[in-house]
TrEMBL record:
Source organism phylogeny: Bacteria, Pseudomonadati, Pseudomonadota, Gammaproteobacteria, Oceanospirillales
Protein name (record): Nif11 domain-containing protein
Amino acid sequence: MSMINQLQDVKTKDFAKHCYESSSVDKLRDAAEGSPDQAEMEHWGLTEGQWEEAIVAALADHEAKE
């Protein structure tokens, strides 16, 4: 999880870890290509930028291990 570990914001890092552990590569790719999930942003207390950063980091870490 090298990309996730580089995240500075605690909420963003926590959400990225959650995404990495609970989502498939395909699901993360779909999320990265779509709009930020408003329900997840509200639940985790994230801005759109934080949500996008977490998704990209989780996806990058998944792809790095493939």
